[in-house]
Amino acid sequence: MIRIRPTTDQDLDVFVDTVHAAFGRFPETPVEGGGLWWSALETDRCLLALTADGRPVGTAAAHSFELTLPGGALLPVSGVTAIGVLPSHRRRGVLRAMTRHQIDTFRARGEFLSVLLASEATIYGRFGYGPATCTARLTVPCHRAALARPRARGRADEEAAGSVEVLRRADCGDLLEEVYDRYRRAQPGALSRPHRWWALRAGQPPVSPAPRHVAVHRDADGVPDGYASYSIGAAGTLTVDETIATDDAVFTALARFVLEHDLVSEVVLKHVPPGHPLRWRLADFRAGEVSGDTDWLWVRLLDVPRALTARGWCADGELVLDVEDPFLGEHGRHLLTVRGGKAGCVPTDREPDLSLDVRDLGSVYLGGTAPSTLVRAGHIRAHRPGATALADALFRTGRPPHCLHWF
C-alpha cells in the first residue's frame, strides 16, 4: 500500500536524498552562494510516496511558472520535475499514482496546462504529455564563420545599431533577469524564470553560480536587449549556454561577437530554435553543423476547451476534435471555432474532423508540430478531405515555439 502526501520544510533532506537515490546518484557538494537545483523547489508542491511503514520510495514536484502562448497570453502552468521512484519499487504503480495525484491537484488549483522536461521519451506519453518544442546545437568552426550581408534590396545590416560589452556573470544578475523576462513574454513556448530562481542561483548557467562571461547587447539608446552566456574550454571551444535576444538582428550581433572571438577554434551555440535564420547568415552555409536536435518542453492539456480558447490563432475556421484521454479515462468531442484570432470551444455531437489522443493535442498546441505530421505518422485520424490542411492552418503560429529554461 502506497501513501502519497505533500512535503513540509522538514522533509527537504529526505526528498532530495530519495530523488537522488532513484537515479543512483548522490546530492552534489553545496556550492558557496547557492546554486543547488533543489533550492528552487516549492516545498508545498512536492510529494513523497511512502510505504505502509513510512519509508519514502518516490518523489514528484512542481514549479509555478508562466507559459507564453501563441498570441502572447501568459498562462500559469505547473512545471513537473523531480520525478523518481526507487529501483526497489518500480513497476508497482508508484509513478502512476503520483502522476494522478499531481493532475488532480493541478486541476484543483484551476490550471488547465502542465509541462515537463522528459528524462526519457517513452515515459510521459502514457500520462497524456506530448513533446511540444524542440531545440538544437549549432557548431561553427571559426575559420569558416564569416557572416554574409543580407541580400534583400534596400535592407541595411541591422547589427550596426547597438553595441556589445562583456561582463562577468557575477556582476550582471539583475540585468540578465530583466532581459530574459522581456524575451520570454514575446516568445511562444517560453517559461518564466521566477525571481527566486535568480536570487538562489538555482538551475543551469547562466542562472547557476558557475563562472561565465556574458556578452550583453545594448540598443542605440544603451538599453540592454540581449545577452549570450559563454565559457571557453581548454581545446579552444567557445560554448554558449544560451542566447537571449529580443529580435533576429540582436541574435545575429551576439553570434557575430562569439564567432569572431580571439583564440577560439569553434563555437557551439546551445539551444538554437528550429529553423533559426543564423545558418542562412553564414557565408558558407555548410559551416553550421546542427546536432543534438531533441525535444524539450512537453505539454499536457488538463481542460481542452479552456486551453484551446486561451491561445491566439492565425487563421479562421471550424474543426470538430474528438479527443481521448486514456490516462484520466475521459473523452470529449469539441467544436473549435476561430474568428479574428480568438477561439470558442464547446461540446458537440457533430461528426469529428480529427480524432486524436490528448498527448497529440499537447504536441500541436503551441504550433511547433503540424497536425499533418501526426496524421502522416498514424497518430491523428482525419475523417474528411481538407481537415488536415485546415488544422495545419489553424494551429500554425507566426513565431515557432521555443523553450530553453531548464527545470
TrEMBL record:
GO MF entries: aminoglycoside N-acetyltransferase activity
Gene Ontology BP terms: aminoglycoside antibiotic catabolic process
Active-site positions on this chain: Y124 (proton donor), F407 (proton acceptor)
Keywords associated with the record: Acyltransferase, Transferase
Highest taxon listed in the record's lineage: Bacteria
Keyword Transferase on entry: yes
Recorded family membership: Belongs to the acetyltransferase Eis family.
HAMAP family: Eis
Assembly: Homohexamer; trimer of dimers.
Protein name: UPF0256 protein
